[in-house]
Each structure stands twice: as C-alpha cells, then as structure tokens.
Design a protein that fits this description.
CATH architecture of the largest domain: 3-Layer(aba) Sandwich
CATH topology of the largest domain: D-Maltodextrin-Binding Protein, domain 2
Strand content: 25-35%
Distance between the termini: 33 Å
Bound molecules: adenosine-5'-diphosphate, magnesium ion
Number of domains: 2
Number of helices: 9
CATH superfamily of the largest domain: Periplasmic binding protein-like II
Number of strands: 11
C-alpha cells in the first residue's frame, strides 16, 4: 500500500466547495471535517489524506513539500509569491475578484490632489504594493487581518484592496469599486520536486481531481 498523497486544503469556503467535488472521485474524507477535531482526514479511497489549515498556510506547506498538493484561492497564491510551486488547475469554484474600492462620497468628489498619496488598507500587502507600483502611484499600505471595509469608514485609509463577489458587502458599507486587480478562483497547486519525481500515486490523485472538475460540468 502506498503512502497517501497529502492535500493541504484551505478551511472555510474552499474546503466546503472542494468536498462535494472530492466525494465524487473517492477523495472524500471518512470523517466529517465539520464534526471531527482532527486536522488530517483519511479519504475513502485511501489514496490521499486531507490536511485542513488556514488558507494563507497552504502555499507554505506545499512549497516545503509537507503536502504534495494544495487547494487555495488565487488571491492567497499571488500574495504568497512564487517559490517551488506549480499551479496545475483552475478548479472553477470560490470565484470572486480582488478589487480596489473607496467611499462613495470620495468617488463622487474625484479630487485629483487628494489622490497623490493613497493610504490603502488590505490583507494583501504584496499584491497591493505590486499593483500600485506598476501604475506609478504612491501608496502607503496598511496591513489588516479582516473587515477591510471598516478602514475608510473609520478614517484609517483612503481605499481598500479586498475581495468582492456581487459587491454587496462594499455597497452595504458605502464603498464603490474603483478598479479590478485580478479574477480569483480556487487553484490546485503542487510541490515542484514532488511533481518531478513522476510518482504514480501523485499523478493518479491529480487525475482524479481533474476528473472531478470535468464532472462538475466544465
Ligand atoms: P477567510 O476570509 O477566513 O480567509 P474565506 O473562506 O472567507 O476565509 O475565504 C477563503 C477564500 O475563498 C479566499 O481566499 C478567496 O479565494 C475565496 N473567497 C473569499 N471571499 C469570497 C467570495 N465572496 N466569493 C467567492 N470566493 C471568495
Ligand atoms: Mg472571508
């Protein structure tokens, strides 16, 4: 019996949307992650073990080979940056966009002087720095860990860089989208060294996930 392939999964939305997909191809967990306190879960086929961790930790586990595969949002992947990772597949769920937004009141005023040096609150300092540097806009980045929508309302920042889906949360906080930075969805990533080993079990699990995505009607 082969050692199971370890798949690091971001808990929350990604895990919830990945599970029904995995169940269709024998990669569903034997125990429910909702009720089990275990952080690693064996799967029905025994070919993989699921490791459920914070999204931001998924690229790290995969980069260092602690997990051969990972499922994580493109937002988290871009923020993490390169490093011994291969992006194998767009899984097509957890779709949203990373956007720049500002208060409606300021968008209406549109004062160019005010825009010379922006203060931007975000959970994504690396993506934000790259984005504004590429545009030649001076930006002071304020790192937050959640509830970015609050920052402009509280006078902490001029703008935010955050995820938006329908824009409902932005609108509810009197914010409007200024521009879209990138389209986001869940991605399958792999450790580069593990891929190069061309291990049969790893390739089988990747194939299973690919089949699951196709069965999902894509
Ligand atoms: P957390 O906010 O605790 O990091 P979430 O489950 O809210 O966890 O988000 C995890 C991932 O799901 C994000 O990194 C992103 O890729 C995706 N995501 C977040 N918000 C949305 C959304 N509104 N619509 C679709 N996907 C989203
Ligand atoms: Mg969230």
């Amino acid at each position: 019996m082969n050692v199971p392939v370890k798949i690091a999964l971001a808990k929350g939305r990604i895990l919830e949307e990945a599970l029904p997909l995995f169940e269709r191809v024998g990669l569903g967990p034997i125990e429910s992650p909702a009720t089990s306190r275990k952080l690693t879960l064996n799967t029905e086929s025994g070919k993989a073990r699921l490791v459920v961790i914070r999204g931001a930790d998924v690229p790290t586990y995969v980069q260092f080979g602690a997990a051969q595969l990972g499922i994580v949002g493109k937002d988290v992947l871009l923020e993490h940056g390169g490093g011994d990772l291969a992006e194998l597949l767009d899984l097509g769920f957890a779709t949203c966009r990373l956007v720049v937004a500002e208060p409606v009141s300021i968008a209406e005023r549109d004062d160019p002087v005010y825009r010379q040096r922006l203060r931007i609150a975000t959970k994504y300092p690396n993506i934000t720095r790259r984005h504004f540097a590429a545009k030649g806009v001076q930006a002071q980045i304020i790192k937050l860990y959640g509830s970015m929508e609050l920052a402009p309302l509280m006078g902490l920042s001029d703008r935010i860089v955050d995820l938006a889906d329908t824009g409902g949360t932005l609108a509810a906080n009197d914010l409007v989208e200024v521009e879209s930075i990138v389209d986001v969805s869940a991605r399958l990533i792999a450790n580069l060294a593990a891929l190069r080993m061309q291990s049969g079990p790893l390739e089988q699990v990747i194939q299973s996930i690919q089949n699951a995505v196709h069965k999902n009607g894509r």
